Amino acid sequence: MPNDLTIQKDDLPKPQEGKPNFYWSMFIMKCPRCRKGPMFTERNAWNLKKTMKMPEKCPECGQPYELEVGFWYGTGYISYGLSFLLSVFTLIAWWLTIGISTEDNRFFWWMGSNAVLLVFLQPWLMRFSRVVYLYIFVKYDPNYKRSGVTTFDYATEDYYRKKDK
Ligand SMILES: [Zn+2]
Questions:
Q1: How far, in Å, CA of 143 to CA of 34, rounded?
Q2: Which of 20, 31, 47, 124 is buried most, with the most CB atoms less than 10 Å from its CB?
Q3: Is the torsion defined by CA of 121, 126, 130, 136 positive or negative?
Q4: Cα of 97 to ligand 1 centre, how many Å?
Q5: C-alpha triplet 118, 37, 137: angle, nearest 5°
Q6: Distance (Å, rounded) from C-alpha 93 to C-alpha 108?
């Protein structure tokens, strides 16, 4: 009698060829191309001497991080945008929990607390802005081991992906 309980190895569901989650990879600041290599040398963003220290290229897939000279210039705007969104969020949270009134100083307490929070988060925000910015230009590539990296083409002034390594 054949044993029906014998499961062929091939029948078992294969573990998903892991494509790391987009938002999570951004949050933990991984390289946009392979989503494995770290974008910053030092894990702790609050180690202020090394906050913005990045490897020249991704240690995992070789993707250069600073695509052209002055590439990070645009991150200032992203940092402003993130700070603004965060302030809107804390204002709503403050309004819902503590409340805001014209008869006391609660609004000014929010302003102070929000300012302290933004200053505290600044190292992290500066890093995260670079991550967001690079994610705009460099897309995830499941074949990162074989295909070429994304670079800046000075001739056409465009970002393109090299066909081969
Ligand atoms: Zn990479």
A1: 9
A2: 31
A3: positive
A4: 42
A5: 70
A6: 15
Rounded to whole angstroms, how far apart are CA atoms 40 and 47? Answer: 12
pTM of the model: 0.81
> pLDDT digit string (tens) for 62-98?
999 999 889 999 899 999 999 999 999 999 999 999 9
Q: Ligand 1 centroid vs 29 CA: distance in angstroms?
A: 11
CA 120 to ligand 1 center in whole angstroms:
29
For ligand 1, the distance from its centroid to the CA atom of residue 144, given in whole angstroms, is 8
Calculate how far, in angstroms, residue 58's C-alpha sits from the geometric centre of ligand 1.
5
CA of 88 to the centre of ligand 1 (A): 33
pLDDT, residue 107, reads 95
- 3-state per-residue secondary structure call for 17-70: CCCCCHHHHHHCCECCCCCCCECCCCCCCCCHHHCCCCCCECCCCCCECCCCCC
- How far does the centroid of ligand 1 lie from the alpha carbon of residue 132, in Å? 15
Token reading at 126: 């500066």
